[in-house]
Write a structure and sequence with these properties.
With about 210 residues, this protein is α/β, with parallel strands linked by helices. The protein has helices spanning about 5-10, 40-50, 50-55, 70-80, 90-105, 110-115, 135-145, 170-180, and strands spanning about 60, 85-90, 120-125, 150-155, 185-190, 205-210. It starts with a helix and ends with a strand. The relative contact order is 0.18.
Length: about 210
C-alpha cells in the first residue's frame, strides 16, 4: 500500500525535495496528503515516470467523490515537478473563471497561451458544474491547443461515458473528448469514499489502461 504521495514518486525512482518552496513560481500544487487505500503501486509508479508528459498525452481519472482522484493527480504533479517540469493545478471552475476575467481585461490571448504552454496542466473536478457558453468553447479551445503539444490530467466524478453530458452542445463535446481520449491513460476508481468514517479495506478497485484509436 502507498502510505503517502512521496512514496508514489519514489516508486518510479523519484524523490520529493524537502521543500517545494523553491518551486513556488513553477507549480500551484497543494502539499502532499495521505494516499487513498489500496493504490496499485505498479500502476501509479508507471504514471509517475512522467512518460505521459514526454508523450504529450492525457491522464483521465474518474470515480465517485472521495475515492482519491485529486490526490492521485496531485501526486503525479509532484513527481513531474521533481525533474523540472512546470505544473499548474486548477479546477474546471477556476480555469474558466480565469479565462473569463482575462477576456474582460483584454488579456485573454496572453493568459490563454501561458496556460497552453505549461508542460503539465491538471484540471480537477471536470463536469462538477455543467459548462455554459462561452465556457464550453474556451474549454474546447484549450484542449485543442494542447493536443499533441502538452500533457494534461483531468479528474471527474462522472463516469467516462457521461463526460459528454457536461457540454451543452453534443458536437463540441464530442470533438473535445476525442482529443482528450486520443492516446490517453485512463484511471478508474470505483468504491466507497476513502474518507468515509467506516472505510472498507476492499472497497477500492482500480484499473488503468490506454485508449487507442
Amino acid at each position: 500500500m502507498v502510505k503517502d504521495w512521496g512514496q508514489a514518486c519514489v516508486i518510479a525512482g523519484y524523490s520529493l525535495p524537502p521543500s517545494l518552496a523553491n518551486r513556488a513560481p513553477r507549480t500551484t500544487l497543494p502539499s502532499c496528503k495521505p494516499a487513498p487505500p489500496l493504490i496499485d503501486q505498479a500502476q501509479i509508479g508507471d504514471l509517475a515516470t512522467g512518460r505521459f508528459i514526454e508523450g504529450k498525452v492525457a491522464v483521465l481519472i474518474a470515480g465517485p467523490c472521495g475515492t482519491g482522484k485529486s490526490h492521485i493527480a496531485q501526486a503525479l504533479g509532484h513527481c513531474a515537478v521533481r525533474p523540472g517540469h512546470d505544473v499548474l493545478f486548477t479546477t474546471q471552475s477556476t480555469l474558466l473563471a480565469t479565462l473569463h476575467a482575462a477576456r474582460a481585461t483584454a488579456t485573454f490571448e496572453r493568459r490563454f497561451q501561458t496556460l497552453a504552454k505549461t508542460p503539465l496542466l491538471i484540471i480537477d473536478a471536470f463536469g462538477l458544474k455543467p459548462l455554459r457558453p462561452p465556457q464550453d468553447e474556451d474549454f474546447h479551445d484549450h484542449v485543442a491547443e494542447r493536443y499533441e503539444r502538452a500533457a494534461i490530467i483531468v479528474t471527474s466524478n462522472l463516469d467516462f461515458a457521461e463526460w459528454g453530458e457536461a457540454f451543452p452542445t453534443r458536437l463540441l463535446g464530442a470533438a473535445t473528448l476525442d482529443r482528450l481520449r486520443h492516446g490517453a491513460y485512463r484511471v478508474v476508481l470505483d468504491g466507497q469514499s476513502y474518507s468515509s468514517p467506516r472505510p472498507s479495506p476492499k472497497c477500492l478497485h482500480q484499473t488503468a489502461h490506454r485508449w487507442r484509436h
